[in-house]
Amino acid sequence: MTPEPHATLREACAPLKFAPLPDLVDSAGAHTRPPTDLQWHSVTSMVEEGWVPVLFDKLRTEHGPGHRLPAATNFLRVTLREPIFLAAASLYLTGRAPLLSPRTLRFPWHTARAEFGTPTVVDLRWAVLPDDPAAGHPDTVVARNEDEQFRMAGEAVFATFEPLLEALFQHSRAGKRTLWGWALDTLHFYMLNPARFLGRDAESAWESATRLGDAVIGAGAITRKRPRLFPFAPEHPRGTWAVRGTCCFDYKGDPEHGYCTTCPLKCDSERRQDLSEWLQNPALAP
């Protein structure tokens, strides 16, 4: 019997130290948890019913940051981190592209704590290649080749995230290029991170991430600058990191923190020093 695509992905992610997957459920089992303080929102309902401004303001008021730019990227972090990891890591680790949609990506909002819980994807379908053992599975769609599979994956990411980013742009006034830049940077990192941790070829993983990023941009995403690979100790299996194309502006919300190690505003010499220290003492790594 062919393993469920969900199970194959979880098995592939099991060795990773960092694998923030969303909950993957079928519609029959969706939202069976006690509804005491939960409000459920799909991307579609959150946008169409005007919840983005309400939840953004509540999250910012209760937890910060006060500055609108890091508040906007933080909103993306708490809603889209797991879906982006799903899109990137599944394609890289299993060769299967999750076909997200704005109606099936759903967010639990905890009213008492004023925060989002782990996102849920309902009735997820996957784009697979003709020779995949899951090609006959009812949850899969067969792509003719890798080009079509990446195109399908990119179009699904764009169609799912764009309504949320547009609503966030309209309310926060953070630029669309900034918002999409954050999403595209994170997508690249979430292919690179598993490769680094598993000791695989970082450049190959980056090529796949770039290919998926190209597909998302081809579907309509916009950004000023793409992220870049940053080999700081090429002789070491984990000696390659990356630099974001778009600043997340966390430093505006916490000036004492300064620039992130992957920030495009940080100079490469300081970045190289920080990363080299991480190799010598992994406890220093974030």
Question: How many individual β-strands?
Answer: 10
pLDDT < 50 stretches: none
Largest sheet: 5 strands, mixed
Question: How many helix segments?
Answer: 9
CATH topology-level name = Transferase(Phosphotransferase), domain 1
Q: Name the beta content range.
A: 5-15%
CATH architecture: Orthogonal Bundle
Mean pLDDT: 94
The top level CATH class name: Mainly Alpha
- The helical percent reads 40-55%
Shape: globular
* Structural class by secondary-structure content: alpha+beta
Q: What is the domain tally?
A: 1
Oligomerization state of this entry? Answer: single chain
Q: What is the helix/strand order?
A: HEEHHHEEEEEEHHHEEHH
- End-to-end CA span: 40 Å
Rg over CA atoms: 19 Å
Describe it.
The structure is a single chain. The protein is of the alpha+beta class and 286 residues long. The chain is built from nine helices and ten strands. Strands 1, 2, 4, 5 and 6 form a five-stranded mixed beta sheet that branches. A three-stranded mixed beta sheet has the order 3-7-8. Strand 4 and strand 5 form a beta hairpin. The longest helix has 27 residues. The relative contact order is 0.13.
Key phrases:
globular, 49% helix, 10 strands, Transferase(Phosphotransferase), domain 1, 13% strand, alpha+beta, 3-stranded mixed β-sheet, 286 residues
What topology emerges from the helices and strands here?
Layout: H1 5-13, E1 23-25, E2 38-42, H2 43-48, H3 51-63, H4 68-94, E3 97-99, E4 105-110, E5 115-116, E6 120-122, E7 125-128, E8 140-142, H5 146-172, H6 176-198, H7 202-219, E9 228-231, E10 240-243, H8 250-253, H9 268-280
Parallel strand pairs: 1-6, 7-8
Antiparallel strand pairs: 2-4, 3-7, 4-5, 4-6, 9-10
